[in-house]
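Final report, Chapter 2: Outcomes

The project's central promise was a pipeline that accepts a single protein chain and returns its three-dimensional structure in a standardized token representation, suitable for archiving and comparison. That pipeline is now operational. To close this chapter, we reproduce one record exactly as it appears in the project archive, with the input sequence first and the structure output second.
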Amino acid sequence: MNIREIFEQKDVVFSFEVFPPKKSSSIDVIYKTLEELKELKPDFISVTYGAGGTSAENRTLELASLIKNKYNIEPMTHLTCIGSKKEEIRKVLQALNENGIKNILALRGDIDESNIIKGDFNYANELIEFIKKFGNFNVSAACYPEGHLECESLSRDLLNLKEKVDAGATHLISQLFFDNDLFYNFLDKSESKNIRNIPIQAGIMPVVNKKQIERIISLCGASFPKKFMKIVEKYEHDKDALRDAGIAYAIEQIIDLVSNDVDGIHLYTMNNPYVAKRICSNIGSIVNSINNKKNV
């Protein structure tokens, strides 16, 4: 199913993100995770696309195909383009098509010295344009409520986002954030740039340990509200308490977002079904209540 169609059917779309196992591990190691996530009935599951060339492509494709054909859940594959030639991307698209996978999250990918000069693509909008010319894929894109870490301002980043939408993106998933007011501000500014005519899903990551927080800061620069940092400082030496507090904070975020008519929630599960189950048990009736009203 085209993921854009899911948004047409529901007021709140709820989805998960997972990542493939390491290339040294069997794909079987993720079966238990998917079995548990399946029971939560997500609307779709996205599969990340790690660095590493062909092996990364195959792992992402293998997992996406498993999600679709074994677990009967619609998959969305991440696809990065920096450092790639058009022929390489064309082969990936052919493989996706052959496996019946029609939803792609188009990303630039991380820049390093080895890939910046050898590829045919510089930005995600170029990849989106290429995919749209290739075949009948539904293409989604990423958005950044606080602006991309490499961009000089949110205003400039919104212009870049508009290029992705104009290139053919039909749905946006946000980078994680911890302050809902920043997300609402981003939605207002997106509307002023005529970007709000497509669904924008809020990306939520439950923070369950201190190392995870430090890694988030280094990778994406997300802001941490004062009340969130107080939670971390209070429970950083008690891993169970910090985990439970992080889950509670994510639940509070989600309830506020869906109560304010957000298009959807995309949960970064980190392949941890325990956290996903805890969250779904607390917000399931709320999401169902909103979606059931649409069908009355």
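Archive annotation: The chain is about 50% helix and 15% strand.
This record, like all others produced under the grant, will remain available to the consortium after the project formally closes.
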